Amino acid sequence: MSSTPAPLLPETRRALVHRLATGQVAGRAPSVVAAVVRDGRPVWQGGWGTVDGQVPDGDIQYRIGSITKTFLAVLVLRLRDEGRLALTDPLGEHLPGTVAGEATIGALLAHTAGLIAEAPGPWWERTPGALRPDLADVLGNDPQLHPAGHRHHYSNPGYALLGALVQRVRGQAWGDVLRREVLEPLAMTRTTLLPVAPHGTGWAVHPWADVLLAEPAVDTGLMAPAGQLWSTTTDLARFAAFLIDGDDRVLHPDTVAQMRNPTSPPEATDWHIGYGLGMQLLRRDGRLLAGHTGSMPGFVATVWVSPDDALGAVVMANATAGLSAGTLAADLLQTVAEREPRIPAPWRPLPSIDPQLLDLAGPWYRGPAPYVLRPQADGFMELAAMSGGNGTRLRPTGDGDWEGLNGYFAGERLRVHRDADGTVSHLDLGTFVFTRQPYDPATPVPGGVDPTGWQADSTLDQGGVGDDGGRPGVDG
């Protein structure tokens, strides 16, 4: 991450202002604010329209709706990383007494628990949380609509349960936990559960006339983890940077990357969208965006990030409908990515290296297929096919083994086998044997190696030679 990212070109800044302005006019929103983050820092902020007669800036609060869910997911994953719970744990193991106790924590995060989309009773987003004083009031008697794990079904009550889970495990209100564990470390001083001036008023815009109707801004009580937060573009720009690079004070970068992995199956007609752990995913023009959209009566908001571009975009507006914050944020991000492609940081040697890692570095072969194993600056390694594609990142387990973190080998163990003299003989990764030479006969290659060895006679019988059975490479 660069400490001083280069400023945007004047032509790029004008294109961003133009897209923001046309979005506000076409969407008929009283006001809209936006920001773009590059290399971990904001490089542009803008506003169009007015709040209390002034063009809004990065300090004006708007309600961010379901972006709140991403914050809540961070709190849950912190508990997971601390060993306080597992994503495979049933909710009831940590939060007993609900009718959804068999739902796993991971399924709730990914909206695959099959629970109802909305809380029973009057529309929860426009009515006080006092109408739902107990968790039973946000679930009803039979909240299970679909078999668990069969499909993605967005559930606001599911995140109410996760908020209650955080509160029970931490022994403190989830909003206080959020402030202490996430907002304060990231210096997000203007992100709050209830509005703090200056803030926008939420408006509904009449569909056929240019007139406004004020929307209620209620405290939703137990449903707050699903969409309560208010924030600013300055704060959400910091959050976008965190969603790209992580922050060891909050979540390790690899855990943040896990949040961006697809966890829920998309609808058959919507393969361009998906869901991870508290994060929405969008495939757009060959670019994978991650983040979350949000809406509450009177407000829409979106945070999108593209880690490959080191870019993030934030949009907030105070209108119930009409302006697509998700589309506008994606357009702003794409504007910068296409006009000013990312310039890579200078190559630098590793600051230090464990000599044993040098024994592992270099080319390896799974059968005849070449791979390369490279030590990383943080003490991890990456195994990648030389033919290209995404590699598998490997972390040390502390007992001499390594664990895959992504791709086909996610969760699989890499074991280093050595000869009697300590020389590395071969690697075993999920039963695949990697050797220093293709099908090295001195190593225990599964099925053995033909004793006649490699042959050059092109007239040899070719019968029975087939493909590799569709086995995936490292990138799956």
UniProtKB/TrEMBL annotation:
<dbReference type="Pfam" id="PF24491">
    <property type="entry name" value="DUF7586"/>
</dbReference>
<dbReference type="InterPro" id="IPR001466">
    <property type="entry name" value="Beta-lactam-related"/>
</dbReference>
<dbReference type="InterPro" id="IPR050491">
    <property type="entry name" value="AmpC-like"/>
</dbReference>
<feature type="domain" description="Beta-lactamase-related">
    <location>
        <begin position="20"/>
        <end position="332"/>
    </location>
</feature>
<feature type="region of interest" description="Disordered">
    <location>
        <begin position="440"/>
        <end position="476"/>
    </location>
</feature>
<feature type="compositionally biased region" description="Gly residues">
    <location>
        <begin position="463"/>
        <end position="476"/>
    </location>
</feature>
<dbReference type="InterPro" id="IPR012338">
    <property type="entry name" value="Beta-lactam/transpept-like"/>
</dbReference>
<feature type="domain" description="DUF7586">
    <location>
        <begin position="354"/>
        <end position="436"/>
    </location>
</feature>
<dbReference type="Pfam" id="PF00144">
    <property type="entry name" value="Beta-lactamase"/>
</dbReference>
<dbReference type="InterPro" id="IPR056008">
    <property type="entry name" value="DUF7586"/>
</dbReference>
<protein>
    <submittedName>
        <fullName>Beta-lactamase family protein</fullName>
    </submittedName>
</protein>
